[in-house]
Design brief:
- The complex is a heterodimer.
- Chain A is mainly alpha-helical.
- Helix content of chain A is 63%, strand content 6%.
- Chain A has 17 helices and 4 strands.
- In chain A, strand 1, helix 4 and strand 2 form a beta-alpha-beta unit.
- Chain A is elongated and about 95 Å long.
- The two termini of chain A are 13 Å apart.
- By secondary structure, chain B is of the alpha/beta class.
- Chain B has 9 helices and 14 strands.
- In chain B, the strands form 3 sheets. A 6-stranded mixed beta sheet of chain B has the order 6-7-8-3-9-10, sandwiched between helices.
- In chain B, helix 2 packs across helix 3 and helix 2 runs parallel beside helix 4.
- The chains are: A mainly alpha, B alpha/beta.
- At the A-B interface, helix 1, helix 8, helix 16 and helix 17 of A face strand 6, helix 2 and helix 4 of B.
Chain lengths: 439, 318
Amino acid sequence: MHFRLANVLTIARREYLVRVRTRSFKVATIFLVMAAVLVTLAPLAVRWLDRDSTAKVGIYTAATLSFDPIARLDTTVNLPATPGGKGPFTFSTVVDPTAGRAAVEKGDLSAVVDVARDPSGDLAFTIVSKDGPTLKIPTLLRQASSVLATTDRLLRGGYPADKLGSLGVPPSVSVVGPTPPKPGDQPKDFAGEVGSVLTGQALVIFLFMAIILYGQWVAMSVAEEKSSRVMEIVLNAASPFELLAGKVVGVGSLGLTQYATAIVPAVIALLLQDRIASVLLGATAASAAPAASGLTPPLLIAFAVLFVLGFLLYAVLYAAAGSLVSRMEDINSVVAPMTLVGMAGYLIAVYTASGLIPADAGWVVILSYVPFVSPYLMLSRFASGLAGPMDLAIASGLLVVAIVVCLWIAARIYAAGVLTYGQKPSARALFTAAFAHRG
Amino acid sequence: MSLQITDLRKRFGGTQALDGISFAVEPGQVFGFLGANGAGKTTTMRIVLDILRADTGTVTWQGTPSTDLPRRTFGYLPEERGLYPRMQVLEQLVFFAGLYGVPRKTAAADVRGWLARFRVPEYADRRAEELSKGNQQKIQFIAAVLHDPDVLIMDEPFSGLDPVNVALLKAAFLEMRERGKTLIFSTHQMEMVEELCDAVAIIDAGRLVANGTTADVKRSSGKRVVRLGVAGDPELPWLAELDGIRVGRSGRDYSEIEVVPPRDPETILHAAIERGEHVTLFEIADPSLEQIFVDLVGRRAAPDEERTLAHLPANARA
C-alpha cells in the first residue's frame, strides 16, 4: 500500500482538533504562559528582589582596635552597587556575644562577626550565620574580615592612618571563559548569571514536561483507539503507518501551538525588559547594570529544534508502546522504560545546570550528543554557553538518524500491536513484530 | 469480474486459522459468509480488506489484487464495534469519509441524509458515547458506506439491533444491491441469510465446507423436508418405525420430517394414508439453511461470546 500524505493530515487534524478543545489543554496552556513570562523576567526578578536588601550584621570586638571597624567597612566592602543606593550590609556593634548569637538564631541579625586577637597578635574572626560557608553573606563577610585584618596589620606596622583611604576597596574582577568575547557580547554580572542559569534550567524542565506530556498523549490516543475498537474502522481506510504518523504530527502540532502560545508573551516580556527594569529599579539602576537577558533568540531556536526532534523521537516510541496495550490502565507500565531514560537525561541536565555535576565533564559532553538524552543535555550546555551552534547541529543530526531508525521499528510494532488484544507483549513478540521478515 | 478469493492460508502461532479458503462473490450479489465461532470469518474478511496479510493465497476484485486496490473500493463494518466516544457523530463520520477522500461538504450532506433515513437526524451533534449500542451500530454502518464503496463487507451487521432497526438496515441493504453494490456479511441468523442472500459460503475450522447459491447449498445434501399434518393425532408415533427419516420437529399442527436419500418423500404420504390418517398437510421442501449448517458444522451457529482473545495477528501488514 502506498503512503498517502492526505490521510496523515486528516488524522493529524482530528487529533489536533479533538485535543485542543479539552479543558486540560486550556489549563495547561494558561499555566505555561504564566511560567514562560516568569522565566523570561527571572533575571530582572532576582535583581529586583536584591535591589534594596541589606543584611544586618553585628560586629563584636573582643580585641582592642586602633580604628573603627564599621566605618572602615562602610568605605571599602560595603559600598553601594549603584550611586545613591545602599551597600549589601548594615553593620552595628554588638556588646554581648551571647546576645549576638541569640539575635542570629531569632533572625534579627543575618550574622555576627566576632573579632578577637590570637596569640600571634593577628586578628581572628568567627562568623556566626545560619548560612553555609559558601553562600553569599558569609562569602562577603570573609572579604570584610580580610579588609579588617589588613587594616589592623598596616596600622600596627606604622602605616599612616590618613593614607588608608580606599586601600581596602575590592578591585574590579571579571571571570570570563577561555574564548575571547565577541564584540557586542554583554558582560554578565552576578544577577545576570543567576538569571541565565535559571533560564537554562527552566527550559530543560519545560522540554522534559513537554516530551513526557505529549508523548503520553500519543500513547493514550493509540490505546484509546484500540480500547474503543475504532481502530479497525480507521485501519480499513488508512495504513498503520499513516495512523502513526498522523498521530505524532497532530499531537506534535498541538505541543508546538501550546509552546508558541507561551513564547509570544515571553518574547514581549523580553522586548520590554529594559522598560520594566527602569520601572522596577529606577532609571539609573537599570541603565547602570543592563539586564542580561536569559532568554536569547539563539537559545529559543535551540529549544525549538530540540523540542521538535526530541518529541518526534519519543513520540514514535510512545505510539508503539500505546499499541501494545488493550486498556488505558496499562499505559504507564509500557511507557515506563522511555520515561526512565528521559528522566535520567533530564536529571543530569538539571544537575549540570545547577553546577552539581561539572558541565564540561567528559561523560556529560559525550552524552550531550547521544539521542534520547541529548535534547536535555545539549539544551543545558547550550544555555550555559558551553556548547555552540556546531554542537547543536551534530546532536540534531544524530537525533534525526535515531528518529528514522525508531520510526522504522515503531511502525512495525505498531502495525502488529494495533489489532492484538489481550496479549501481554513479550520481548520476543516485540522482536518478532519489529524484525520478522514479511512477504 | 468477481471478488475472487483463492487458497487463503493464515497461521497464528500454533493455530491454522485459514487452511486454503477459496470462493468467489459475483458483483451485485448479496453474499452470506457463515461459520461457527472461530471458524475464520473475521480473519478472511481482514485479509480481503488488506488489514491483515495472508501467509499464502490471493484476493482479487475485478482482476486487481486487493493490495493494489484503492482503499475506497471496500466499506467495512467490523465485528468489534467502535467509535470515538467523545467525538460528535457528524464530525467523526466526516473524518472517516475524509480518509477515503470524500470532501468534507459532501460527506456532511450525506451523513445528514443517512441519519434522516435511519430516523435519527438529531444525532448529528451528539457525542457517540451518548448513543445506545444499537444506534452506535447504525452510525458505524453509515461510516462503512459513506464513501460509496463497491464492496461492502460487514461482520455481524444485525447483532444487537431491535426488529425496527433490523428492518431499516435490511432496506438499506436491498437498496445498495439495487445500485449494483456487492454486499458480503456474516451472521448467525440463518433466516436472514435465506431472506437476503443470493449466495453463501460456509466455513468451518478454516476450511470451506459449502459454497454456491443459497438454493444450491440448501439442496446440496440431497435431503428433503416433509411437513406432514394429520387430523386428530399430532404425535404420529408410527413415524419412528420408518427408516431414512428423522423427525425434526413435532408440532401442534404438523410434524417436520427430514428425509434422507434414497427414501422418496412421497413414501411418507403413502405410509400415512396406509395407516388411515386423515392428512391435512403434506409439503415437500428444501431443508432450512439452519439444518444444513448444523449438518456441516456439527453445531448451531451462535452469537460470539465477548472476546478477550480475538483472532490474533502475529504480524499484520505494515
